[in-house]
Amino acid sequence: DFVYQKLAMFLTTYTRIWRAAKQAHIKIKNHVSRLRVVHEIVSVERSYTKSLSLVIDKFMTPLREKALLPEASIKTVFCNIPEIYKIHQTLLQTFEERLDAWSYQQSFADLFKPDLLLQMRDLYSKYINNYDSAMECIKTFKGQENLAKFIRGVEDYECNGTDLVSFLVMPVQRFPRYTLLIKELNKATDKSHPDKTNITNVLAQLERVTQFLNESRRKHSSQAKLEQMVDGTDGIQKYLSVDELMDGTKLEDRLGDFIMEGPLILLSSPLKGGSVSIYVFLFDGIIFFAKHIRRLRVNLRLLV
How many Å apart are CA 225 and CA 255, to the nearest integer? Predict the structure, then answer.
């Protein structure tokens, strides 16, 4: 009996030590995984902030100082990048301070505060909605020799071959990138960790912000197309001035995504013969039929 008691005590002690060692191993593994992801988030933020700084210091400011580009075009191309850069400078500083004081129980996702994300949402919405206009403006640079030469020089010698367009698309991709990084942090975080709730909340907030940005860009693109149509059509103004359509909905709410535009030939019946040429603007919720009445002017009707 004495031997069995000693053996039982030994096995109990061994089992307790083994479980403690296993838990410690898991804890260390999770700590290393979280630290690796946090390092990646900080590194990506640092690289992004540096890229925004390059756009301002090497492109926007010299173009303005050298008067190579009109002020209106500078505002179109670079939009509110200085404001975006400023907020990311502050965010990067908070990231680095948290990393410097890192410990196993340290949280990180709480740095994405709700009021900060709302502020970023508004800044990025303005930038993303302007992005297509910026790209159209850049297309005109090729015909301006001095301007094109300056931009190529900056791209080759100051930016290691990275072109201006590659820099300007970075803000458009920013929130999807944050979502991927926080999802990686979520995978590396144990359920019992204090940061788990923060991560869950931030992922939900990032999803809402991303949906807002996508919807805002969709509405802006459709509205921009509608405004473009006004420049070449007669008859559309009465639809734009109508508060509600026949079914009680607003025109802007019924537009949906702009899909395509182009000429359409309507064939008459076999007995009558002939055809009618019209021009169609197709949105998700509305079709505009335009009949040419003179060069670059059309009489417009809509079908909802």
Answer: 10
